[in-house]
Amino acid sequence: MNVMLAQTWMYLAVPMVMYACERLTRALRSSVRPVKILKVAVYPGNVLSLHFSKPQGFRYKSGQYIFVNCAAVSPFQWHPFSITSAPQDDYVSVHIRTLGDWTRELKNVFSKVCRPPTEGKSGLLRAEYDRDVGAMSNPSFPKVLIDGPYGAPAQDYKQYDIVLLVGLGIGATPMISIIKDIINNMKRLEGDVESGNPGDASTSASFRTRRAYFYWVTREQGSFEWFRGVMDEIAESDKKSVIELHNYCTSVYEDGDARSALIAMLQSLNHAKNGVDIVSGTRVKTHFARPNWRNVYKRIALNHREQRVGVFYCGAPVLTKELRDLAQDFSRKTNTKFEFHKENF
């Protein structure tokens, strides 16, 4: 019996020491910061959006992620989430899909302080901090800590003149930050040229991207609500068509299928008349079923001969092999070189 107890402690000691060291390291890290909740929104598909105040000195790159802690859910648990805001924004945001006990409880905790949105606001439930009213009139948000930022493959997108961004479901989160960042950098560079100001040389040198293709593939129509404002903003502000946006809803019949013909006809008429897609509710027209990825690569290879294309994928592993194999195949068979990067969850 004593031998068994001794062996049990041997097996338990190492994990316990590692856990204690990790907790101590996180407690001592200077990157752990308290933040003020500015806005909360609950969207279809069990997605919670949190907008935080941006801590002083907090700098990050699009594509990176942070760890989030909420003591009201669990004082000891930290969970990673991609940042959906852009570095130039005066806030930090994340979009969290309910996929487990912790995220489910986090959504429940914040839903309690939310109300149905007013007209013109997105989401099923919302709550916002109003600086113009007293503390007693503002929602009593749970306290949140963030730790980070931490590096991820997508943060290196600026190394490429051409990028192909693919997000599967909630995997669109780092890509949203990237396309916002591309627009912001392009505006800055254009403003410097028009004013005759050379601007920040380091920024100009580090930012090489001149064309981006964004493909967002999701099963649920309601998912497009998560980033409706961002999509509309990019569609309106991207005057030079730097970013090509493609929304795909896989729960609808394929393009060309007779059963989807009526939807497609109504969709085209409404988009032509009002500039809004009836499926996504945005200015970006929605396609049906899955993209033909071979055709996507082929078109990019023909449009950008003798160039390097950075392919960035975030989502479930189901698409990883196909996208990687196509990148290798077209790199061998054409003079366009595709370099594949992935982030699975």
Number of domains: 2
The residue ranges in which pLDDT falls below 50 over 5 or more consecutive positions are none
Strand order of the largest sheet: 12-11-10-9-13-14
Shape: globular
Looking at the structure, the CATH topology of the largest domain is Rossmann fold
Largest sheet: 6 strands, parallel
The tally of beta strands, per DSSP, is 14
Let me know the average pLDDT.
83
CATH homology-level superfamily of the largest domain: Nucleotide-binding domain of ferredoxin-NADP reductase (FNR) module
- The CA-CA distance between the termini, in Å, is 42 Å
Describe the 3D structure.
Pfam families: FAD_binding_8, NAD_binding_6. This is FAD-binding FR-type domain-containing protein. The protein has helices at 2-28, 101-111, 173-195, 201-206, 228-237, 261-274, 293-303, 320-333; strands at 32-35, 37-43, 47-53, 65-70, 79-82, 91-97, 125-128, 144-150, 162-168, 211-218, 243-249, 286-288, 308-315, 337-344. The chain has 345 residues and is α/β, with parallel strands linked by helices. A 6-stranded parallel beta sheet has the order 12-11-10-9-13-14. A 4-stranded antiparallel beta sheet has the order 1-8-4-5. The protein starts with a helix and ends with a strand.
